[in-house]
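Submission checklist for the structure archive. All mandatory fields must be present; incomplete records are returned to the submitter.

[x] Identifier: MFS transporter
[x] Organism: Flavobacterium cerinum
[x] Residue count: 527
[x] Sequence attached
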Amino acid sequence: MAQNSVFKPWVPNWAIILILIFCMLHSMVLLGVYTSNVTYSASFLDVDVEDLQFSLCVTYGTFLATIMIESRLFKFFPTKKYFIVIYSLAAITFILSAYTDNYSVFIMLRMAEGILMALPWIPLRQLLITRFKSKNAVIIGFSCNYGALLLASPFIMNIAVWLLENYDWTYMAYGSALFQVLCVALVMLTFNNNRFHKKIPLYQVDWASYILVLTAILCGSFFFIYGERKYWLDSPQIIMALIIALITGGLFIVRQQLVKRPCFDMAVFRYANLRTGFFLFVIFYISRATLNMCHSTMFAIWNWEPSRVAQVQYLNVIGNVIGMILAGIFLAKGVATRLIFSIGFLIFAVYHFWFTFLFVPDVALSDIVIPYILQGVAVGVLFVPLVLFTVSSVPVQYAPFSGTIGVTGRFWGSTIGFCLMQNAQVMLQKIHFTKLRQFVLSESPETNERLVKVTQSFVSKGYTTDDAYRLSVQQLINTVSKQAVLLSNMEIFTVMGYALLFLVILLLLNRHLKQTFDLFKNRVWGS
């Protein structure tokens, strides 16, 4: 069957490409709409920031597990009905979330959204690549696919913040559901009733492996996200989560060795470049995790409004576009892999070193423009080449499994990155707060002089002497706390900068990192 036969003949090719890219944004809406304004979402659900981060891990972790069995489901159902059902169910989950203030129910909905996010992801990319006739069709298709993933986040955040500021939580959910309805309409308009693949029976889906790997992912996420908050191995919950993750993960690995059709073939780990790609993905996402520290500084230290922080992220989008254009040129020209990676991680290092000097009590927007754009450039340069390098580093029969490795690296890199930054911030802030407090004791003449001035300013505003003194002490403590945050961020960014420089040196010295973008021979469709 011709692959383009799933589209109605009267629809022009350019319209099909735009519609497929638009429908890809469905996954970004599912992943990021609840985390676009963490403070508001956490307050609505009466949960902590860690709980919102765990909900994100639940969605993306379920996505990771589902892509291992997605191809079987896509090959069983008719293409048009497959997409219509997925987008319709996604709209329903958003409507349900609008009336959900119970965190446990919310987590169940997030799991459902992870499944609905995974099911159309690879099929849409397959269809998109078939629409390009260029010899670089795979590079263009992957760039559009992952470009949509990168660039959609700031737009979705701005829309969500606007809805939250002008309306309320339910309207944000309604807006997200409306997006899914638009996808349904576009699919009905564009697709015919033909199949993209030959039908395969559903009995071949390895549901047991799916349950095992999903359990391991969710328990592992719980361990990393809540470890610091629950004092690690002092908590029975953390110990139990770790044990379950290790047992189910081990059983999953053993099962893949025994079944005839594994949903993940462990033989892919025999290839050195795939292991390298996985390692670089983890480092890449740990490096990206520091951007959240910049955003939290904008909120907590510089006191920027949520709408302003959302708008600032368009600067990062500019960097992403520049980086992806550079990456596309590098790939089309056949630039060596290690050189592309070295350039990307070097720009990442420059961003970290530059931002180290910006963690001060107040800055102007003009001060952060260049390093903020550089972060986007680094992400744009690295993202697609990393994906292509990982998925094309194995023979054709292992291509789908190497794609799963790429998603695994992204997931665990994000999760471990959050864990590392969270623990580093808590530890360093305690150390710096304790040291700084020694210099603001009441015995210090400078401190007493400052307290007197601040107390007098409060008294002049109508406060009693006792209340004014308490407020001045609280203001001083807040100042010390903010300074501890800034010093901690400076140290973390400095360490990350040096770590990335060390990685660049290793990449430049590594003569075994080969160019493996033989995509046209492998016909890689993995994630």
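[x] Structure attached
Curator remark: The first helix runs from residue 13 to 32. The chain has a mean pLDDT of 81.
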